[in-house]
Model the fold of this input.
Amino acid sequence: MRLSSASARIVIVALACLMAAMCKRAPATPAGAPSTPTVRVFVVTSLAGALEPCGCVKDMLGGIDHAAAFIRSRRESASSSLVLAAGPTLFMDPALKAEQRSQTLWKAEAIAASLADAKLVAWTPGVNDWAAGPDELARLRQLTGAPLLAANLSGQTGGAESVKIVEAQGHKLGIVGIAVPLESDKAPAGVEVADAKAALEAAKQKLDAGGARIRIALLAMPRGAAMRMIESVSGYQLVIVGKAVDRGEVNDAPTPPTLVGETLVVQTPNHLQGVAVVDLFVRGDDMRFQDGSGLARAEKRETLRRRLEDLDRLISEAERPGSSVRPEDLEARRKDREAVKRDIEQNGVPEPPAAGSFFRYELEAVRESLGADAAVSERMKGYYKRVNDHNRTAFADRKPAPVPAGKSAYLGADKCVSCHGEEHKFWQSTNHSRAYAPLETQEKQFNLDCVGCHVTGYDKPGGSTVTHVSGLTNIQCEVCHGPASRHAEAPNDKTLIVRAPPKSLCASECHHPPHVGKDWNVEQAWPRILGPGHGG
Done:
């Protein structure tokens, strides 16, 4: 059938109208879950000068070489990725110890360069980052290859900027930093701190003007204050919270992610114990991200995972030869483990929303089992060698303090063996007798962060120092029993030696967090310390 030209025009117009109507009725966000995130955000908060963990337990949490390896491996499965950090980053404490200044600065350099290797995109500082002064902060910032963001700071900020806008898969992401670097209500010298909330609101307007529709805030401030601010400032899809200040080696427990309205708030444990991964799946033009992880389930999964680790440890110890655990108790633990495994399966990650954009969250524990980034590992070795070479000379003249009158000096185990041969033979079978060798192998024997727990009488009158360790390497008798020179002169006087040290000595000297993993327990270790001549 042939149509007249007028009829044909009518049909074409009708078809065009029908297609237009169909387009209007089409869903704004296509159904179906994308398998690859639009943007993957790697999160580190309050790294606080932790290059790697220090301790006697294998596969402890931490290690920037392991974190870098993890980030590299996971970056490949995302369309685009960002690495972001908030809170104290470069230094463990707000002030540097004078004698350790060079060593600590070199460690900060290794951390900064390793963050550059991991492709850090932006970071927001805590109090600790000014420990060496604003000029050093500016220099180290350059080594990271990433801008320092602190929209509410002025003055001696180390070159901090307010915002950064990046593009990922055709989407503009805006990042703002807010820092409240106050310790005892005082900011670092020369730093002026403006109102955090006003700065966060003003930054949003700046990001909007730059076309950013996904907004991320890096907050280095007390968590309570951060949460209150987030409740009153909307428009940020992701908020990353780091501490304002950190101090010492104590490790924090993980903080569960949470939703404040439509804002996902995440915070990782300090000292690089974990790296959080936030995957953003964008569907269509929707920039409101729904919960695709089931955060309530995620928290329960984490609790169950820790319970499973504890049960695995208890079962492993109970299965060792000579264990005092009754067979029925061991079987009960095995049943508990299977029950926990079933609970983990039942609380798995839910299916993503059928429509609309969504996020997924996970926290990866940083362990040796993740592997090691080759470039970062080599840099760490270089750092340790540099420190070793420097300290060998710098502290060559540091000798132990003289022994006060009427007190004992340290002799070394070689002077004890003539009377305590059985005890000495047992000690030689323990790891304590081989504690110094790993430092030499790794070029750490002159490292001020390491040596104290691997020698006897460190920094004590008549004992050892970082460079003067002759006869006092390893964890010898006198660590537990005290200096023995007067005891050697009068062996029958039992008041001149500590005969039975308290178990608390282990924790007070060396075996305290974070130098031990959560699996270490003095009650379990004590039987392995005791031996012939030791009451065992």
Q: What stands out?
A: The domain at 39-294+351-370 is CATH 3.60.21.10 (Purple Acid Phosphatase; chain A, domain 2). Residues 149 and 418 are 64 Å apart (CA to CA).
